[in-house]
């Protein structure tokens, strides 16, 4: 009887640890972490896309940077050194400004586009870059982009 009771306690502890590891704060539409691809798969997908291509997608990645004005955009690191610029559908929600380095799951539309200089400078300003850094932005940039319908922030 003691062995059975001990076994049950171990299962409960393991189960509670697993539940804590899978805890997320949700932003935007309700989404789940199920079937999210990793950054290697996402990187391969983006490399196969051309400017103007769009696809529905769900991925897990690490936050690199967040808009420090409102939390209205974030960038995610990809395995190949590139980043994904994430905006939120219809400007309908924001994320906390202090989540750099944390893991997120995002679901929405992945696409490749060319960002004009004016917009790049705006993002640099939102990120708190210096006037000198902003002035060095002189050419449009091809970017991996994402319009997120929902975001899960791993706790």
TrEMBL record:
| Annotated keywords | Signal
Q: Which domain of life is it from?
A: Bacteria
PROSITE patterns linked to this entry: PROKAR_LIPOPROTEIN
InterPro entries listed in its UniProt record: DUF4920
Signal peptide (residue range): 1-19
Protein name in UniProt: DUF4920 domain-containing protein
């Amino acid at each position: 009887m003691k062995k059975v009771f001990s076994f049950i306690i171990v299962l409960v502890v393991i189960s509670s640890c697993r539940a804590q590891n899978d805890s997320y704060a949700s932003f935007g539409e309700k989404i789940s972490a199920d079937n999210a691809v990793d950054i290697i798969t996402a990187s391969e997908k983006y490399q196969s896309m051309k400017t103007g291509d769009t696809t529905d997608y769900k991925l897990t990645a690490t936050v690199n940077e967040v808009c420090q004005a409102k939390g209205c955009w974030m960038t995610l690191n990809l395995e190949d050194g590139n980043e994904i610029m994430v905006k939120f559908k219809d400007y309908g929600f924001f994320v906390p400004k202090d989540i750099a380095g944390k893991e997120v799951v995002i679901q929405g539309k992945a696409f490749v586009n060319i960002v004009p200089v004016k917009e790049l400078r705006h993002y640099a300003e939102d990120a708190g870059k210096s006037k000198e850094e902003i002035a060095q932005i002189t050419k449009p940039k091809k970017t991996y982009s994402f319009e997120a319908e929902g975001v899960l922030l791993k706790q």
